[in-house]
Amino acid sequence: MRLFTALRERRPSLAAGLLALRSKAARGQIRMSSSLPVAAVCQMTATPDKDANFSACTRLVEQAKEGGASMVFLPEGFDYIGSNREETLVLSETLDGDIITRYTHLARKLDVWLSLGGFHERGHDWKTDRRIYNSHIIINGQGEIVSVYRKGHLFDVELTSKGVSLRESAFTVPGTRLLPPVQTPIGKVLLRARAIETQCFVLAAAQVGAHHAKRTSYGHALAVDPWGVVIGDCGGSDVGVTLIQIDLQALQDIRRDMPVQQHRREKDFYCSLD
């Protein structure tokens, strides 16, 4: 919320309300009319080709900026999605490498904040263990990295009935303990639940379509308001951008009228139920 508070200081508040639309028209033809802060949730199809991925993301960011966005959200794996473990490791970079440097330049050029979800960052002991972080990076409009979150809840799953084994922990170093959203049909319900119980706007960028012969993504990049209402959905087939107006006054009103944070019980209460 502090990010959008900072962004709003650059724009006088002229109107209230929420508006979301799927941006499928030609670039430059759609722009938010209100001066409320605008966020853009992007959907893309990353491949092992980092240059092609950067070009695709640049087009999405430029489209979002032309639509009036102050902050643009790109999905996990925006940099690339490798076709196997070795390729995933070889393509990884450090925070001061070429890919993130390109994005800092892009943010500064367009004067837009970027949320880069799921960057393949080489770990601190890369030379000895060849493991990486799954890092979420926030870049401000001056091209400065202002926050890095390293995913802690790694995705390990064994689907024995389908012969599928996925072990992110085999090559990824855990960071903090926060659980990021999952984009699946169930994930859509979880995102709505998180929005309601935290009284926040939830913005979840996503991948869509076939990345290579072994992997396809579900899509449905979402924006959810504090009541759990889906106010933006990129669908399950195409790349694109959804533009969302962030009404911070409406958010404050919701939290005032239903102060759920004040209703939380101390952890000792739950221990007493054992």
TrEMBL record:
Matching PANTHER family, A to Z? DEAMINATED GLUTATHIONE AMIDASE (PTHR23088:SF27), NITRILASE-RELATED (PTHR23088)
Q: Which Gene3D superfamilies match?
A: Carbon-nitrogen hydrolase
UniProt domain CN hydrolase: residue ranges? 36-248
State the protein's name. Answer: CN hydrolase domain-containing protein
Q: What is the lineage of its organism?
A: Eukaryota, Metazoa, Chordata, Craniata, Vertebrata
Q: Which PROSITE patterns match?
A: CN_HYDROLASE
